[in-house]
Hints:
This protein is an alpha+beta fold. The protein folds into 5 domains: about 5-105, Rossmann fold, CATH 3.40.50.20; about 130-200, 2-Layer Sandwich (Dna Ligase, domain 1), CATH 3.30.1490; about 205-445, 2-Layer Sandwich (D-amino Acid Aminotransferase, Chain A, domain 1), CATH 3.30.470; about 455-580, Glycoprotein, Type 4 Pilin; about 585-660, CATH 2.40.50.100. An 8-stranded antiparallel beta sheet has the order 14-13-10-11-12-15-22-20, sandwiched between helices. It has an 8-stranded antiparallel beta barrel with strand order 24-25-26-27-28-29-30-31. Strands 3-2-1-4-5 form a 5-stranded parallel beta sheet. Helix 4 (about 90-95) runs antiparallel to helix 5 and helix 7 (about 140-150) crosses helix 8. The chain binds adenosine-5'-diphosphate (2 copies) and magnesium ion. Magnesium ion binds near residues 275 and 289. One adenosine-5'-diphosphate binds next to strand 12.
Amino acid sequence: xxxxxxxxxxxxxxxxxxxxxxxxxxxxxxxxxxxxxxxxxxxxxxxxxxxxxxxxxxxxxxxxxxxxxxxxxxxxxxxxxxxxxxxxxxxxxxxxxxxxxxxxxxxxxxxxxxxxxxxxxxxxxxxxxxxxxxxxxxxxxxxxxxxxxxxxxxxxxxxxxxxxxxxxxxxxxxxxxxxxxxxxxxxxxxxxxxxxxxxxxxxxxxxxxxxxxxxxxxxxxxxxxxxxxxxxxxxxxxxxxxxxxxxxxxxxxxxxxxxxxxxxxxxxxxxxxxxxxxxxxxxxxxxxxxxxxxxxxxxxxxxxxxxxxxxxxxxxxxxxxxxxxxxxxxxxxxxxxxxxxxxxxxxxxxxxxxxxxxxxxxxxxxxxxxxxxxxxxxxxxxxxxxxxxxxxxxxxxxxxxxxxxxxxxxxxxxxxxxxxxxxxxxxxxxxxxxxxxxxxxxxxxxxxxxxxxxxxxxxxxxxxxxxxxxxxxxxxxxxxxxxxxxxxxxxxxxxxxxxxxxxxxxxxxxxxxxxxxxxxxxxxxxxxxxxxxxxxxxxxxxxxxxxxxxxxxxxxxxxxxxxxxxxxxxxxxxxxxxxxxxxxxxxxxxxxxxxxxxxxxxxxxxxxxxxxxxxxxxxxxxxxxxxxxxxxxxxxxxxxxxxxxxxxxxxxxxxxxxxx
Length: 660
Ligand code: ADP
Ligand code: ADP
Ligand code: MG
């Protein structure tokens, strides 16, 4: 058995592999880029070695650096995870040459399936029909156009070397074809270093169904059932489940037989996935491609079969025979996985970056996560943060468990797709098991928008938190203000005004303390009475007899709140109105500070003439500069303060004798 293993990857999959190493008593060795020094996968392994700067091409894609780290650590084996070098035959070869066991298929198998064009030929010959199309050597424009006409528009243009949902585009009409071909070729060259393209009929209502297979180095080959990964965005998976809902026994048998035939054709000798596309209503699954690696969504197969697939990979790589025979592999219940990514689902799944300020996993689920509180999400790597997996006796049990677990999952500091995932899982189309790859477009026409049942409450809570934290984390001045206001000289309760804005709108809230940790928050003529209890990252609010728990992350004026699958991001600032202070002083010619602060500047001296609106002093409060102006025309009589002086609210700063 292997005793030490280097994990040539990062994020959740590196953490996942380290977990199995621990269970098997294998010493695990992580590698990290300069951006990942404090990443969770580094802490998860027994040892770790730096392999280069942040960009993947300088670190996680550097075969020489990774092999050198393995030698330095005295590792016996290397696990490539998925993505990065996992499907590069030359990495498997480099490992072999360095005397390292590659935990994956032989370089020969990787190479056979590395190019979609060649892979499709192998599949056809093995008796697994492909999506009707054209995949051959002649890449001339004329031939491609002729083939596209034969296939019939719309067609899918794909990079033969593509992967990860990239390098493919749908072309709907002949007049777009020439330009699309050109663009696709250039993109393929730039992204994958290979301009070869293939054409496929665009399947209009496709389901993505794939089969998990496993082969060993002794000719053994089994399948571990199918997964349905039809819910996708940008041709990348979002929700995955096993088994696939509503699959007829005929189709299921075809899937298994074809997947095994493809595996047998290349003498497949590790864990792998054969992907198919199934037109809704059809009984003919078409071969798409084969991934010669561990799949992101492998946990749903683990959940229903009870096997640890990383353990399978390691045992197979060590030369053992398959851990189970086909007859001993059974599926139990149903499992669904949700990929939690750092993206704005409401903005076409734009990636988000930031520091994770709160991280809490909901109950009842398996979490495979690559992040923790304090972790940095950077633009260098893909956006997958964690995967949440629910297993239940049937599909409905798994689905409801996943929804409940996700609702209670809190990740703050960076936008995540959790609110979107909850809505997707709750959509009737998904509930009925009828999602195709157009699910998101169908379920959320015009794009997904967050439900905002708690928005008003969230806004009020943000205002309260801002006041408590000191004006959006801007020091203690705000707290002093609050203290002053509560004890306010006016006798009655004092209020302060707070601006709460989103990218779309700005609201002015009036906040009034009504007791210890209780506030009345007014907005647009109506009010909410809220009591808050803060405990670390969470705030429990009681409003109108209902308790809502928010997770919070405060970063300066930016306040993020999440509750029950909804998340909010506000910019919160105290309302600063220099003119009002002027008004307060009007008539008398007395210029007072209307809040505690530091006198930053005095612009006049006794005897100076001022006109109404002239700025006479500048006050610094809550990191803001507030200009104080004269309301009257007259002569400065007395200056009662100096620059740098701390003043209380209401302090007389200078007096102006108004012209009579
Ligand atoms: P799966 O099929 O396992 O769900 P995806 O297709 O979503 O996986 O890709 C898994 C990971 O591998 C993603 O991080 C993706 O960006 C990456 N990936 C897959 N193929 C390639 C490739 N050819 N080049 C670069 N990255 C890839
Ligand atoms: P990748 O290597 O990027 O994973 P695939 O060939 O596996 O590429 O396709 C990824 C996804 O793109 C599929 O799951 C499917 O949703 C969509 N897709 C691929 N080919 C077609 C097609 N011919 N028609 C419609 N959708 C397709
Ligand atoms: Mg694929």
